[in-house]
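User: Hey, my collaborator sent me this sequence without any context and asked if I could get a structure. I don't really work with proteins. Can you help?
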Amino acid sequence: MGFSGHFIVVRAERPATELSTFRAVVTTPWWSARDGDWQILQLSVRADPGAAGGLPPAPIVTETGAPALVMYVHDSDVVAVEAAGPSGLTWHCVLSPEMARDYEVPEEQIGDPDEVTGNAVAWAEEAGLRPDPVAVRATLEAECDPLAEGLVFDLVHALGFRFGPGENLPTF
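Assistant: No problem. I've predicted the 3D structure and written it out in structure-token form, which is a compact way to encode the shape of the chain:
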């Protein structure tokens, strides 16, 4: 059995673990890394907050005033991705599309690569990043090899994030 949990990308001056959005759903933080004010946080949800995938990005955007990216990894096989920005721009997809089809994920949730690439690139540009559209598209079409967590890092890199070395976090 692989990892099931979230990777969240958020812009905040304080540690992401201090955001009320995460405390409200009772999370266990595992790992974090930074790229300036941007942070990527790996966490597990201990209580079901009632939202699909566990953590929608809209409350994070509301709290931080910045774009947010939420990625839910299921058993290291597929990644449900949802992003939102302060302008109202949103996009979603599922990484590892063939595996997602094996899980019977509907095509509309997997997303059309052309449409998702355009929206993801626009979202990244709104976030002040320099995305690589070719790499974004390649990540959307790639399969986990061997773990879907690798696709998480491929996607954030393609979007223009350059996270430094991470650190394990103490649980709350």
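In plain terms: The chain has a mean pLDDT of 90. You can pass these tokens on to your collaborator as they are.
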